[in-house]
Design goal:
The protein is mainly alpha-helical and 454 residues long. The chain has 16 helices and seven strands. It folds into two domains: 180 residues, no CATH class; 205 residues, no CATH class. It is flat.
């Protein structure tokens, strides 16, 4: 699909303005109201089952205002102490809610152009920005406060990302990107996304292993203050479960994380007191040497990336370029995840929750890039070296008659030389003597020789 086709409206398909306005209103307000209602329901449940809590509808609805903002990762201040390490599970749920609403709007509006998709995204982001700013101003002056600017752009940004994911398949952007972007880069992006999922799976496996090894401590924390407290602890642990998975991934990659003065890493460990949250019961009391074996897990993810990209290109250098793109995707993903999962914890003894996003991002790049490059280089097609053989000049064969003629000439050559010498010794052709001795021979001596008479 051409770029001009993406921006042009389809003349054969006309959606009524009233229908379009209704769909956009639903996609803008629906996720906001649903998210607020879900936060209020959870708070009502926790308040109702808590042993020493006083339940009131007005109190729940008021508390749900900063709760809705916290679901979009807006830092809140409680009596002047900032709480920035917010649970990620509500954030994931509200983004899924926005994504489903945007996808439904794209289907109802029969979106097929980039302009129509952008209209849906701007509507969703604008509605969240307005509601976030209004709620931030509403709670100002109370015990729980929110920065109005943060209340404006945090919900708008997250809602925009979720809406883009919802309308992207119908907008034709992916076809445009596939046509314009290097195929190796696309393969690298897909492999990087696979690596992110695999690394999070590694973190989840490490977290489950830690919970199993610390089952007694976790059970004791759950049953501390009765059933009401257990349900509240369960909900709080579930809310922070994605944060724990990201932290466990950083632990398996090497850099680890810290909670106040407590440091947990295969390379460095420092124990200490932690909050009485069942999820934190998985934290060990002392370091172990076998933790070094966990470093093999992210290295195995790198091997997987290299295996996936082993046939990305005929050239080994092309495959290395795809592995580099995958490593960049992994680095960006864990920089965002590490920064989102950690943060301030009110300035108390457990402040801050530092997931060491920069070091984790660098570590996963190493674990993905090095094994991936080795596997992609060695397991893919190899260039064939052409061996150039020296040219052999074959002289034409001489026939037998030529050889016999040469032999005859060689045999006659000495006789010819003798004839030439003899010819040089003969008198000249005019009959004159060759020299004086031949023309005037000496008289013979002896008794019978005639004498010369003067």
């Amino acid at each position: 699909m051409a770029h001009t086709d993406l921006l042009a409206a389809d003349e054969d398909r006309v959606v009524a303005p009233a229908t379009r306005a209704k769909v956009l209103a639903v996609v803008a307000i629906g996720p906001v109201l649903t998210g607020y209602a879900a936060v209020a329901a959870v708070l009502a449940l926790v308040t109702a089952i808590a042993a020493r809590a006083h339940f009131s509808t007005g109190g729940v609805l008021t508390a749900a205002v900063p709760g809705w903002l916290a679901a979009y990762q807006v830092p809140v201040r409680i009596d002047g102490h900032e709480l920035g390490a917010l649970p990620l599970l509500p954030t994931v749920l509200v983004m899924v809610l926005v994504w489903r609403a945007a996808a439904g709007a794209a289907e109802r509006l029969e979106i097929s152009t980039l302009r129509e998709a952008g209209r849906v995204v701007l509507t969703v982001a604008g509605a969240h920005a307005v509601v976030g700013l209004a709620l931030a101003l509403l709670v100002s002056g109370g015990p729980v406060t929110v920065d109005p600017l943060a209340g404006l752009y945090y919900p708008a940004l997250l809602a925009a990302l979720a809406a883009i994911a919802g309308v992207l398949p119908a907008s034709g952007v992916w076809a445009l990107v596939s046509a314009r972007v290097d195929p190796l880069a696309l393969r690298g992006i897909r492999a990087g996304a696979l690596a992110v999922v695999a690394l999070l799976a590694v973190g989840g496996a490490v977290l489950v292993l830690a919970l199993v090894l610390s089952f007694g401590t976790v059970k004791q924390l759950f049953l501390g203050d009765g059933a009401g407290s257990a349900i509240g602890m369960l909900l709080l642990s579930l809310g922070y479960l994605p944060n724990a998975v990201v932290a466990a991934t950083g632990f398996a990659a090497g850099p680890g994380f810290s909670l106040g003065s407590v440091t947990v890493s295969p390379l460095d460990f420092a124990g200490g007191p932690v909050p009485a949250l069942p999820l934190l019961g998985a934290l060990p009391e002392r370091g172990q040497l076998w933790w070094w074996l966990l470093l093999l897990l992210p290295a195995a993810v790198g091997v997987l990336v290299g295996w996936v990209l082993r046939d990305a290109d005929e050239s080994p250098r092309g495959r290395l370029r795809a592995v580099s793109v995958a490593a960049v995707v992994v680095a960006l993903a864990f920089a965002v995840l590490g920064g989102s999962a950690g943060g301030a914890l009110g300035g108390g003894p457990f402040h801050p929750l530092d997931l060491r996003a920069a070091w984790v991002s660098l570590a996963v790049v190493v674990w993905v890039a090095l094994p991936g490059a080795i596997v992609a280089w060695t397991q893919g097609p190899q260039p064939v070296l052409e061996i150039v053989e020296p040219e052999v000049v074959v002289e034409p064969e001489e026939d037998d008659e030529s050889e016999e003629a040469e032999e005859a000439e060689e045999a006659e050559e000495p006789a010819g030389v003798e004839d030439a010498e003899a010819t040089e010794a003969e008198p000249e052709a005019d009959g004159e003597p060759a020299d004086d001795e031949a023309s005037d021979p000496e008289p013979e001596s002896g008794p019978g020789a005639p004498s010369k008479i003067d």
